[in-house]
Amino acid sequence: MDQRILVPFDGSKPSTVALTHALEVHPGSAITALYVADANGLGPMEGDRAEIPEEEADRASEVFEEVRSRAEVYEATVTTDVRAGDPAETIVEYADAESMDQIVMGSHGRSGLSRILTGSVAEEVVREAPVSVTLARSR
Length: 139
Known about the structure:
Blueprint: E1 4-8, H1 13-25, E2 30-38, H2 54-73, E3 78-85, H3 87-97, E4 102-106, H4 112-118, H5 121-128, E5 132-136
Parallel strand pairs: 1-2, 1-4, 2-3, 4-5
């Protein structure tokens, strides 16, 4: 059965590992790569793509080139989308609103004090997501 898979993608190594994992493990599934412009530094806005600053839209276009390149290797089509907001909250809300079956995301692998100080988007998504979450770690 084809699933609807959400892959939060920011161009980092962990997000690239997650995209590769989704393409390998879920061939034929409808995969969406979501770039979240962190609204914490963008002023008052919530989720509306029309309000995403040009530099963030340009960054999303750049990272989606990597998405297209990876998809081509696997002869797959990956849909891309951009949203603005708190990353974890936006990922969870998007998965729910778009009826995703699963979220596949990377983990930066922080532990101890670093994780306590910076928080973990992946950890929050795992706690709050309405669907199963797979964390893909780089080796």
